[in-house]
Structure formats: C-alpha cells, structure tokens
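Reviewers of the previous submission asked for a worked example of the structure-prediction workflow described in the proposal, so we include one complete record here. The input consisted solely of the amino acid sequence. No template or homolog information was supplied to the procedure at any stage.
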Amino acid sequence: MTKPFAKRSKARGVLPAAASLVVPGVGQLINGQGTKALGVFGVAVATGAAFFTGLPLIGAVIGLGHLATHVYAVGDAYVTSRRKP
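From that input alone, the workflow returned the following structure tokens.
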C-alpha cells in the first residue's frame, strides 16, 4: 500500500526551503511529509487570515505567530532535506 505524499524528491536543502518561503508547507511536501505539510499550511492560512481581519493589537500578535510559522516551515524544510539520505 502506498502512502499519499510519501514520494520524496531528490532536491536537497535549498529547493524545499525556497518553496516553503513562497508557500509555507510546500517544502515539507517536497520532502515527502504530507501530513506535516498540511498542518503547516493550515496554521499559516489561519494565522494569515486572522492577521488581516484582526484588531490592531491582536493582529500584531497573530502576525508574529504567522511569521514564526513561516520561519519554522523554511527551517524545517531545509534541515529535513539535508538530514535524510
């Protein structure tokens, strides 16, 4: 039985990180981590939407959460891609 999103790309390091920089979660998808990709993308969409609709103070706090999610996505995609053989 094959798992969805389980096929890994031969890309190493920079390509998955750049993809996650553009759209959070795509780097995880390239690395074959489909479930993590959906989670990261979902959190990024939720915090991004809340940032744009939030009140000034709450929007700023949620914006920091979105920035943290984005940084996590890029860093995790890079490190995971470099770590796996």
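Residues 14-83 form one domain. We consider this example representative of the routine output the project will generate in years two and three.
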